[in-house]
Fold:
Amino acid sequence: MVRIGAHVSSSKSLDLVFDRAKEIGAETVQFFLNSPRSWSKKERSDEEVKNFLNKKNLFHIYPVVVHASYLYNLASSDETLRRKSIEGVVKDLRFCDILEIDYYVIHPGKAKGQEEKIAIENIKSSLDSIFSIYTPKKTTFLLETLSGQKGEIGKTTYEIKELLSVLPENKSGVCVDTCHIFSAGYRINTEDGFEAYKSEFDSLLGLERIKVVHCNDSKTPFNSRKDRHQHIGEGSIGIKGFELFLTDEFFGNLPYIIETPKENNYDVINIERLRRIVEKSTCVRSSEG
Ligand SMILES: [Zn+2]
Structure:
C-alpha cells in the first residue's frame, strides 16, 4: 500500500513531528533534526528522545524520514567544508539510530565550478569516509535525485548509480523527487516518459533501491534544471504525472512525502489530492475484479 505524508516542522521538540503529521492526515513523515540552514546542532535531552520514541510507537506514522541539512556539500573542493559536512552527517546518523529513524535523505552535493568528474569523486570519497566512521544500524541512507541546478550532482540515474557504488547495498538506497527528475529532463508525466524512467532505473540500479518518493509538482517547465516545488496538480507535471506514480505496480507501494509550499492548509489539500488518485484507482480495480 502507498503511504502519503509530508515534511513537517520539528521546532520546539522533536516528538511534535508526530502531532503535526497527524493533524494534517499524514501516514508518513519527514523532518529536519536541526535548522537546515545553520551549522549549530541542538542538544537533545533524554526526555525529548523518550517522548519521540513513545509517540513513534503510538501514532503508527511510518516510515519516519530525516532530511539532511542544506549546508552539507560532500562534493566540495573546500576541504574544511567537506570535513564539516562529513562530521555533520556522521553525527546525524548516530542520532538517527537512537531515534530509530527509517531513512536519512541527503542531497549528494554540488560541483560549484569544479569539473563534474572531480565532484563525483569527492562525493564518493566523502561517502566512504562517513561509512567507515559510522555505519548506521537502524537507518537506511538515501541519496536524493536532484534537478541539476547550480552544478548539483545526482541529476541522472547514472550519477546516482556511480555514487551508490561505494555504499553497502543493504544500508543505502534512493529517494526519488518527482519535481527534481522532471526538471532534470525525465518526462515522467507521460506514459512513455514514465516507463522510460522506470526501465532506465531498473536496468541501472534495480527499482527496489528506491525507498521514498518526494512528491512535488514543479513551478518551472520541463528540463528547466530548477528546483522549485509547486502544489500537486498545479505545476508543469500536473495530476497525470502523479497518477502514473501512485497507480504503478512498483511505485504504488512506496511512501510519498510532499514538500510543497507551506501556504494556508495546503498540506491537507495536497495529501487529499494524492489520496483521491489512489482511491479512484482502487475503485476501478475492484470494479474490474
Ligand atoms: Zn531534498
Notes: The two ends are 18 Å apart (CA to CA). The mean pLDDT is 97.
